[in-house]
Write a structure and sequence with these properties.
The protein has 18 helices and 4 strands. By secondary structure, it is mainly α. A hairpin with a 2-residue loop joins strand 2 and strand 3.
Length: 427
C-alpha cells in the first residue's frame, strides 16, 4: 500500500513537472524508475543475499563506474573502445572470488580485549585531534581556502597523523558496541571526526569513514534497509559531486563554467554534477590512452608503478604511482611540475603487465576480498568486520584511482598491529 501511494505521488510530480518545468521531466521519470528498481531489488534480491558481499558491492560499483565513465559526454564512446577489457576485468574478479569460495581456509578464533581496544581507539582520536588543531592554527582551514593550496603546503605526515581521528573513532565505536558503553562519547566522536574530515577537505577519507561505520553497524547491530542506503548514496554522490561545481563557479564565475562544460549536459538542473561525471570519465579515458602508449611488451613497467605506492611512504624524492602515469601520458606535466592523474584499476594493472596484469590483478582482488569476507561470515568478530570493510572500501576507491594511497597502506598496517596488541588466539 505504501509503495502504491509513493508511486501515485511521484506520478503527480511528473505531471506537474511536465507542465511547470518541462526541462525537469526526465529527472522526475528517472526518480520514479529508480524507486521502482530499488523496491524490486530490496524485496527480491537484497532480502536473499548480503548486499555488502564482494560479488555484489564491488561488481556493482565496478560496472556502474565504467558504464557512467564511458558515456559519450564529450563525443567519445569509451564503452565501445574499452568494453572487452571491462568484461575481462570483472570476469577475472568473479573467478577469484569463486576460487576462494570453493577452497577451505583454516581460521583461528580471536579473544579480544575490548577495554584495551577502546583505549587505543580513544588515544588515536586524541592524536588526530591535536594534529588537526596544529594544522588549522599553523596553516589555516583547507576547506575555507578556494585555491586548495593549504593541503599541498602541509606535510603529508602531519596530515596522516591528523586523519588518525577517524580510525580511532571506528575502533572506539566497535568497542562501545561490544561493551554496551560510551554511547554518548561515541556520538560526539563520530560527529567531530566527520566535521574535521570535511574541514580538512578530504572527500575520500570522509566517505571511507562513513561507509565503514555503516558496515560495522550492518554486521554488529542489525541489517540495514538497503533501499534507504542506496538512496542516501545517490544523494551523497550528488552533494559531493556538486562541491567541485561550486568551487569552479566561485573561482571562475558561471559564464566560464558554461563555456567550458555547458555543452556536456544541456539541462541546467544537472549541470552541478558535470564535474563529478567528468571525473568518473577520467579513468576510462586515461585507460584508453595508456593502451595506445604501451602497446608493446617492452614498454610495460613490470611492477614499478604498483610498487611505487609502497615506496612513496619512505622518505626521499620518490615518484608516486599517479605521477608515473602522468609522466607516461604527459597530460599532467604542467609548467615543469609533474602532477598526478587517475588511470582506473585497469589502467594501473595494464601499465605494469598488460592484459595479463588485468587478468591476474583482478583475480587476486576477488580472492582477497572473498577471503576476508569468509573470515567475517565465520568469525563475526570486530577485526574481521573492520578489515573486510576497510579492504572493500579501499578497493572501491582503487576502481577510480587505480592505486593504493600511502595512507591506506599505513592505516591497514596499523589496524593489524592493534589487532596483534589486543587479541589472543583461541582454539
Amino acid at each position: 500500500m505504501r509503495s502504491v501511494i509513493v508511486i501515485i505521488f511521484l506520478s503527480i510530480v511528473i505531471g506537474l513537472s511536465a507542465v511547470l518545468f518541462p526541462e525537469s521531466m526526465l529527472i522526475s521519470i528517472g526518480l520514479v524508475a529508480t524507486y521502482l528498481m530499488l523496491n524490486i531489488a530490496s524485496n527480491y534480491l537484497f532480502s536473499r543475499f548480503d548486499v555488502f558481499s564482494p560479488e555484489i558491492t564491488y561488481s556493482g560499483v565496478y560496472l556502474a563506474y565504467f558504464f557512467i565513465g564511458s558515456l559519450p559526454l564529450l563525443g567519445v564512446d569509451y564503452l565501445f573502445k574499452n568494453g572487452l577489457y571491462y568484461l575481462i576485468g570483472i570476469v577475472s574478479f568473479l573467478l577469484g572470488g569463486l576460487y576462494l569460495k570453493i577452497i577451505k581456509v583454516k581460521m583461528n578464533e580471536l579473544q579480544i580485549n575490548y577495554h584495551l581496544l577502546a583505549m587505543y581507539g580513544f588515544s588515536l582520536f586524541i592524536v588526530g585531534l591535536v594534529f588537526t588543531v596544529v594544522i588549522f592554527v599553523s596553516y589555516g582551514v583547507p576547506m575555507l581556502e578556494a585555491e586548495n593550496e593549504i593541503r599541498h603546503n602541509v606535510s603529508s605526515y602531519f596530515m596522516y597523523l591528523a586523519l588518525l581521528n577517524w580510525l580511532g573513532t571506528i575502533l572506539f565505536y566497535a568497542s562501545s558496541i561490544k561493551l554496551s558503553k560510551y554511547r554518548l562519547t561515541v556520538h560526539v566522536m563520530i560527529g567531530l571526526s566527520a566535521f574535521i574530515l570535511f574541514l580538512l577537505g578530504y572527500r575520500t577519507p570522509l566517505l571511507t569513514f562513513l561507509i565503514i561505520l555503516l558496515l560495522m553497524r550492518h554486521y554488529l547491530i542489525q541489517r540495514i534497509n538497503i533501499k534507504k542506503i542506496l538512496i542516501i548514496c545517490l544523494l551523497l554522490f550528488i552533494i559531493l559531486g556538486s562541491f567541485s561545481y561550486f568551487r569552479i563557479v566561485a573561482r571562475d564565475g558561471t559564464e566560464v563554467f558554461q563555456e567550458k562544460y555547458g555543452s556536456v549536459i544541456k539541462m541546467n538542473l544537472l549541470q552541478p554534477i558535470i564535474p563529478a561525471l567528468l571525473t568518473v570519465q577520467e579513468g576510462p579515458k586515461i585507460f584508453y590512452e595508456l593502451r595506445g602508449k604501451v602497446p608493446d611488451l617492452q614498454d610495460f613497467y613490470y611492477g614499478k608503478v604498483i610498487s611505487s605506492s609502497f615506496l612513496s611512504i619512505l622518505p626521499g624524492d620518490n615518484l608516486s604511482a599517479r605521477q608515473y602515469v602522468g609522466l607516461l601520458t604527459g597530460t599532467r606535466y604542467i609548467n615543469g611540475t609533474l602532477n598526478t592523474i587517475t588511470p582506473s584499476v585497469l589502467g594501473s594493472l595494464y601499465v605494469d603487465f598488460g592484459l595479463l596484469g588485468i587478468i591476474f590483478g583482478m583475480f587476486l582482488t576477488g580472492a582477497l576480498l572473498q577471503y576476508y569476507y569468509k573470515c567475517l561470515k565465520v568469525k563475526r568478530d570486530v577485526f574481521s568486520i573492520l578489515i573486510y570493510s576497510y579492504l572493500l572500501v579501499m578497493n572501491l576507491n582503487i576502481i577510480h584511482s587505480g592505486f593504493l594511497d600511502p595512507i591506506h597502506i599505513m592505516f591497514l598496517l596499523l589496524i593489524f598491529f592493534i589487532r596483534f596488541l589486543v587479541t589472543t588466539r583461541g582454539g
